[in-house]
Design a protein that fits this description.
The structure is a single chain. Helices cover about 15% and strands about 40% of the residues. The longest helix is centred in the first third of the chain and has 13 residues. It has a five-stranded antiparallel sheet with strand order 1-2-9-4-7, covered by helices on one side. Strands 3-8-5-6 form a four-stranded antiparallel sheet, with no helix packed on it. A two-stranded antiparallel ribbon has the order 10-11. It has one domain: Jelly Rolls (Sandwich), CATH 2.60.120.10. It is mainly beta and about 190 residues long. The chain is built from two helices and eleven strands; from the N terminus they run H-H-E-E-E-E-E-E-E-E-E-E-E.
């Protein structure tokens, strides 16, 4: 608020006046929010989770009509997902909002294309390959064979939204839409 010369500043809030209950809860929640994990920590997490097949193999389901996924674990600090990719399944160019992430391929082969600056990079990911990324990483992942693929993903903080993009050589990345990730996400 701008003041004009000669105007008095608004009176400060009385020192003895308490915050509203809602304001106090918001302040406490912000102070108690755990710090997000770094991409390297998430990479270690997905590698360890992948090595414990009993925790995720019962949930593997390869649906020929759509990519299948399920959230395996959630805390206020991170979450872990299982994604199942049949031949030809893909996800459009997207980011993970404010979340950093990592993923490991547990079976099959996945391809990832990601944007760094103006350049597009492509990698083939075989079982055991771990990719990690900071918040803001824009990529696409797909399975072009030779068979089904499975991957485990971790995000910190837990996903809230994903922005999808198109990429044009003259204008760069252009957001197309944002999808919110529900707290109880199943396909």
């Amino acid at each position: 608020m701008a003041l004009r010369l000669g105007e008095a500043a608004p009176a400060p809030r009385p020192a003895g006046r308490p915050m509203s209950a809602l304001a106090a809860r918001i302040v406490r929640a912000e102070a108690e929010r755990p710090a997000p994990l770094a991409p390297d920590d998430l990479a270690v997490m997905v590698a360890r989770f992948a090595s414990a097949g009993g925790r995720w193999r019962p949930y593997v389901r390869h649906d020929p009509h759509r990519r299948w996924y399920v959230r395996l674990a959630w805390t206020p600090r991170h979450e872990i997902w299982l994604l199942c990719w049949e031949l030809g399944h893909t996800i459009d160019l997207h980011d993970h909002g404010t979340s950093a992430g990592a993923f490991v391929v547990t079976e099959g082969v996945l391809r990832e294309e990601y944007v760094r600056g103006d350049d597009l990079h492509r990698v083939n990911l075989r079982p055991g390959a771990v990719q990690r990324f900071a918040a803001g990483h824009v990529h696409t992942v797909w399975n072009d064979g030779p068979g089904a693929a499975t991957s485990i993903h971790a995000y910190s903080p837990p996903l809230h939204s994903m922005t999808y993009y198109t990429r044009d050589l003259s204008t760069g990345l252009q957001p197309t839409h944002v999808e919110l990730v529900p707290k109880t996400a199943v396909p």
